[in-house]
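Structure, all three chains, one model.
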Amino acid sequence: MSASDVESIKKQTRTYIGVFVALLVLTLVTVGVSYLHISSVFLALALGLLIACVKGGLVASVFMHLNHERKIIYWVLALTVLFFIVLMIIPVASHLDQRAIQ
Amino acid sequence: MALVDERHAHGHADAHHEELGFWQKYVFSQDHKVIGIQYGFTSLVFLLFGFSLMMMMRWSIAYPNQPMPLVGGLFKATGGIIVPEFYNQLGAMHGTIMVFLGIVPLAVGAFGNYLVPLQIGAPDMAFPKLNMASYWSYFVGGVIMLASFFAPGGAAQSGWTSYPPLSNIAPPGQTMWLFGMLALIISSLLGSANFIVTIVQLRAPGLTWMRLPFFVWAQFVTSFLLLLAFPALQAAAILQMMDRLAKTSFFLPSGLVVSGKVLEVAGGGSPLLWQHLFWFLAHPEVYVLILPAFGIVAEVIANNTRKPLWGYRSMVYATVFLGFMSFIVWAHHMFMTGMGTTMSTFFQTTTMIISIPSVIILTALIISLWGGSIRFTTPMLFALAFLPMFGIGGLTGLPLGLAASDIHLHDTYYVIGHFHYVVAPGTIFAMFAGIYYWFPKLTGRSTSKLLGHLHFWPSFLFMNGVFMPMFIQGMAGVSRRLYDGGAAYSHAQGVLHWNTFMSVSAWCLGLSQIPFVINLFWSIWKGKKVGSNPWEATTLEWSATTSPPLAHGNFAVIPTVVRGPYDYSLPGSGREFVPQDQALPQEA
Amino acid sequence: MMDIPYTTEPRPDTGLYNAKLGIWLFLASEVMLFGALFSSYVLLRTGAPTWPHGSEFLNIPLATLNTVVLIASSVTMVLAWSALKLNDFGKYRRYMGLTFLAGVGFLIIKAIEYSTKFQHHLYPETNTFLAIYFTLTGLHGLHVIGGMVINGYFWGPGAKMWKTQPERFTNRIEVAGLYWHFVDLVWIFLFPTLYLM
């Protein structure tokens, strides 16, 4: 193990701790926002999901090393996210479309 | 030029391969070939069982409320008569067993497991232990499904589609169905991850993506469908288990009345939620049923026309596109749920689009015959018959994919005719082609040509006898899942006579499988011994492996691939076929 | 043992070792599994005439603590892997042990949450909100238990491999870590969805 390897891993460790702190802060933020009782359901939802996405993004890119992963992994995940979005949108869209014609 | 597998050269770990006991070698094996054979035998037994269920159904349809001959004695409680509740069990379990315990394990578990590592020049699958776990998970799921017949109230009886609210309030056999499905889904997920990693990572040197046999591409896309679509049904099964066991109301609407009483549940659930989750899996599932079949037919056609496949590249792109599209068409199974016009337009459009890649693949296979030097071997007979049969199945799908015509055809016998054409004289014929084609690789012996013909011709005839009249009945409005075949409905009277015709065809179809079973067993013992490449084929499983039956590790020397998969009658080569790993002197 | 290539060293053109691709594929299927359940949540909530705010039934401070515990366990997990890269087996053991303990903590808090609900006669069958709450968190909890079994194995008997095949063992910890981070990731979305909205 070379000195530069040790150095780079020590740097990584600092990043991990930094992300940990960020995640803690964001957790408190998201709980705090919920206590504000924002009147618009849509806005509350969007804000909550946005914060969750940022937190999730940090875990995925830093802890799970996605920020320097291989292309194949990115493709698999992109495909998955696409179908995830389809599965999230279509059933409720069908439901709303159904109600629209009544 | 082939690489010597360094590990063999150094004799690494070979010694303790010989020390495997009986159980580790034949029962709890991690060798993909043994696992493939395990999948093969188990799935064929399930196919036979599922077929028997259908033969009983067809008795009820043709001769409702009359005691069954032969097996009627087993049902003393009803005097040998198939009562409607039992008919429903037969129907639900026939579908479940054929699809989940029969065809997919055969097409993917058996053919895929056995052949993919061989065709890509790998010593085994990427994760042999997971492979073994995948088989045994399937086995457990199968046992649970069979055992469900003995549950109080019988097996699942709400269709293979298990729609709530009916399935929610069905007898305990439905809960066993859910547990069985969980085991099967786990098996599938383990298997599909294994296939993808194997194909991506373990291709032999020189085996680029566009040099892969089409069979491998088909298995690759199939695995993605299984990986990403099955979890939705897993979620649905969990939710239905919660409904049935923890008294939740995920699928139960408020105020549901059962047997005159309002159900005492929280309500607020959505039966349509089940349908969305179920079909999110079940539509890609039908492409899981057909893609391996396309793969097998492609291999058999290339080999028996002695020329390359026409349009290999188009077939590959079409297959990938098909896989992708299959995730966004599912609600064409739900046109009759009160869907609004926006969603039905969306799904009709995607459904029409998805027919294009299927047509491209079928057309390429047909054009591949042109100018070929056709050898009418037994596998080729089945592969050739597949083409028009799948054509009929595919074409009859079109009016179902269009909402306007689907209004008349949904849940009629037309649908049953459509999907059976693609799966029965479609996929199952491709499976037969594959069994006859690769039999010599597994056993070192060839099958009987006479028995092959005795299997093929009557099967082909009776397949059409069973399924063609279904379109007529369907267009006349005869609904599916009727234990009496429509006898109680006035609009069905004019087409009722087809029931006897179809039932007799079905029983004759059953009899036609006897030469196949005899052929399999007789040939294993007494078939003519052949070498390692009796079909003079180009792909690695024929050209580079040790003599059959194949040894552990598959290849004495890991091959290096230097050409595409179908260099038959290669101009300038002076050869009728050039295997993938063989360099020609003029190419040196 | 099988002579399967690329179990430890990565394949040159893909840059991956087999288990890395394998675990990401498995995680992709898990995204679809939890995605299907989230989709169910969306459909059920949209179709419901009324839907309670999470605070009506759930203990937000306790769940916030649980969120912190799980996130902390993610950090200790990745530090355990880092330790192996630095050839420090002792450090690995300590961090992996902490990860396991954090998992225990998470489950204890979860058990407190569940039992409090049952004491107040709040069950999955009570209403749709509780039904999806128990199902989502229950399935997540099962995944936590599964992860702990794996982590426990690698802290204990599985750690023997460090002596004979250190690189392969490090990869196994990386793969186990990916699974564990994913379990954390699901909770990051579950927590606001169920508790805060």
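The CA atoms of residues 24 and 97 of chain A lie 40 Å apart.
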